[in-house]
């Protein structure tokens, strides 16, 4: 029963409490601002205050796939569009399914996102309001991406929203999911998000997450992926907004000959803190993983990257590669990076590396020698650094949206050196 799962999760959160910098997983990120903020639960009526005009700038221009819109964690049916779905595809409100067909959720919900060791996951499981239940039947290939748009409106009191997604891709299916988190105002709020993705044998799944919350918002997001045999998964995590952001991405190989790709891009400035934690668990042999995470930090921004790759004893013939690169645009921006490999098998190919630096002045000089002024030259190089990750996204409409957002950021001087 969902009620029993919620109650057990709340009891676990009470036992764990909020993490502190004394906890190894949180030693670089102080969440005290979250713990001392008196959040309230948002009112369902807030859905009615958001209009189609409000969501238009955040849609995937030219996309014709299904769209589910949520406001402060609650489904907004009048803003959503799920007509004309292919046979074998269901895009539904998790809360509605939970009320009427709970038995469909129980075998899967909460199986990938453990509450035992993660306080925020426990809190989320206890209070999740709504989200998407997406199922794609065996052999179904979706041509258009599914867009999940989570909006946070400006409210008089700080609030906490707890959206949750459960995605099940059947055998030999193909689906792309774009998960967008957007702040409509400048209010204080917290989004505590969990997405669970179960990938069947031979399925191909892309999960793209765009986080562009309010500059005063807190975002704690966890994506958990379990892959079947010969499946292919791509996860792209883009973080642009938020005051304090934590992204957890965990991928587990449960069978042989599967492949996963994790890409990430963070743009931080002012006093932003953006913390990316990834885990790839090679629990089966003959699997490969590829990971590229990049950060661009300006002002007093702080970044964290902790990337773990586990290769279990029986996971022979593993091929795992991890890269973390950070571009610092100011003397006050900082990054803590910790790539980790834990290998218990002997026939593997595993590499990892991390680089931290500033813009290459030789490249700046090269552009200036061709008539480009200093500010524009640095903007071009910064954009190229970020675009390397954006171009790895397969959903063209999302790539176009991100390129526009990146150019706007540079034009506004939010992420730029602005030196002559």
Explain this structure to me?
Helices cover about 20% and strands about 40% of the residues. The protein is of the alpha/beta class and about 425 residues long. The chain folds into two domains: about 250 residues, no CATH class; about 60 residues, no CATH class. The C terminus is likely disordered. Helix 7 crosses helix 8. The strands form two sheets. A ten-stranded mixed β-sheet has the order 2-1-5-8-10-12-14-16-18-20, with helices on one face. The protein has nine helices and 20 strands.
Q: So what's the overall shape?
A: globular
Strand content: 35-45%
DSSP strand tally:
20
How far from one another are the termini? 63 Å
Key phrases:
single chain, 420 residues, alpha/beta, ten-stranded mixed beta sheet, 9 helices, 20 strands, 20% helix, disordered C terminus
Topology summary:
Elements: H1 2-16, H2 32-35, H3 52-55, E1 67-71, E2 74-75, E3 89-93, H4 94-100, H5 102-105, H6 119-127, E4 131-136, E5 146-152, E6 159-161, E7 164-169, E8 174-183, E9 189-199, E10 204-212, E11 218-227, E12 232-239, E13 244-253, E14 259-268, E15 273-282, E16 288-297, E17 302-311, E18 318-328, E19 334-343, E20 348-357, H7 361-368, H8 374-390, H9 396-411
Parallel strand pairs: 1-5, 4-7, 5-8, 6-9, 7-9, 8-10, 9-11, 10-12, 11-13, 12-14, 13-15, 14-16, 15-17, 16-18, 17-19, 18-20
Antiparallel strand pairs: 1-2, 3-4
Helix pairs in contact: 1-6, 7-8, 8-9
């Amino acid at each position: 029963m969902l009620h029993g799962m919620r109650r057990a999760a709340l009891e676990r959160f009470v036992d764990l409490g909020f993490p502190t910098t004394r906890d190894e997983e949180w030693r670089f990120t102080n969440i005290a601002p979250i713990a001392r903020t008196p959040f309230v639960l948002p009112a369902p009526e807030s859905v009615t205050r958001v209009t189609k005009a409000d969501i238009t700038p955040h849609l995937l221009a030219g996309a014709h796939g299904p769209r589910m819109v949520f406001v402060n964690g609650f489904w907004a049916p009048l803003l959503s569009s799920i007509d004309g779905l292919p046979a074998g595809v269901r895009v539904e409100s998790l809360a509605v399914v939970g009320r009427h067909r709970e038995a469909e959720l129980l075998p899967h919900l909460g199986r990938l996102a453990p509450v035992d060791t993660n306080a925020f996951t426990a809190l989320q499981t206890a209070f999740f309001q709504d989200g998407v239940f997406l199922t794609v039947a065996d052999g179904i290939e979706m041509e258009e991406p599914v867009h999940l748009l989570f909006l946070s409106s400006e409210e008089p009191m700080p609030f906490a929203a707890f959206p949750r997604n459960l995605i099940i891709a059947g055998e030999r299916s193909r689906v792309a999911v774009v998960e967008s988190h957007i702040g409509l105002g400048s209010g204080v709020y917290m989004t505590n998000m969990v997405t669970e993705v179960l990938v069947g044998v031979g399925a191909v799944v892309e999960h793209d997450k765009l986080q562009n919350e309010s500059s005063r918002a807190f975002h704690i997001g966890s994506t958990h992926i379990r892959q079947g045999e010969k499946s292919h998964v791509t996860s792209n995590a883009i973080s642009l907004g938020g005051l304090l952001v934590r992204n957890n991405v965990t991928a587990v190989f449960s069978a042989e000959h599967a492949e996963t790709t994790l890409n990430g891009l963070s743009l931080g400035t002012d006093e932003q803190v953006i913390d990316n934690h990834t885990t790839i668990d090679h629990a089966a042999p003959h699997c490969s993983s590829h990971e590229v995470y990049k950060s661009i930090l300006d002002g007093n921004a702080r970044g964290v990257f902790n990337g773990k790759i586990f290769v279990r004893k029986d996971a022979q013939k593993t091929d795992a590669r991890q890269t973390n690169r950070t571009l610092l645009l100011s003397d006050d921006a900082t990054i803590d990076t910790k790539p980790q490999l834990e290998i218990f098998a002997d026939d593997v190919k595993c590499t990892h590396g991390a680089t931290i630096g500033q813009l290459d002045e030789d490249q700046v000089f090269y552009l200036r020698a061709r008539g480009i002024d200093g500010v524009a030259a640095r903007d071009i190089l910064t954009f190229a650094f970020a675009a390397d990750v954006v171009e790895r996204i397969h959903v063209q409409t999302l790539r176009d949206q991100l390129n526009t957002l990146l150019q706007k950021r540079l034009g506004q001087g939010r992420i730029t050196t602005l030196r002559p």
